[in-house]
Amino acid sequence: MHPVTRPLLVSAAAAMALLGACGAEEREAERALQPAPPVSTVTASPSPSVTEAPVALQTPARPTLPRPTFEAAGFTEDDAIAFAGHYLKVLNYAHATGDSGAIRGISEPDCGACRDDAEVVDVAHRKGITWENREVRFRSAYIEHFDPQFGEAGVQLEMDVPTGRLVNADGTTLADFQRMEFGGLMQLKFHDGRWWVWEMPR
What we know:
By secondary structure, the protein is of the alpha+beta class. The protein has helices at 23-32, 77-97, 101-104, 112-127, and strands at 130-132, 137-147, 152-161, 164-167, 173-177, 180-191, 194-199.
């Protein structure tokens, strides 16, 4: 397996836009999307004069959308670029619906960035956190390397994300994000008649 090349991005936080956030606001949002650690509790006798009713948060309904599909034409440069753009569509779909299986279904098992993308979707879905107007958009791409012998391709992507926010289950804003442009190298493999994401910029 060839080593993964990680190019310099527009900013160190730019690659995190693929997880739906960026910069200092990304760190705040990422903390919120981490699974809560176990908490030690002390049981106290309740006051006989006070009765507290549990507060239930209404998890916002997620849209029902068709899962994006991609039919490979073969191991060609044009097809590699088209599939790289397809991954962005799948990522946006997973953010909107909570269907992290769509990401896992087109990723190699050892793609750490893909695994992170799917886990962020899982945690957000459990916590009722949604992305509002935060789609990763394809701008342009070119082939950086193309190896028919190993069935590998590297696609240099240019992307942007619009102004948007992360929204808590109660409708409050978890984090606001400004529009940004960024780029990075997506590593792909082709086998079994299909394209797979091997690694992504972080």
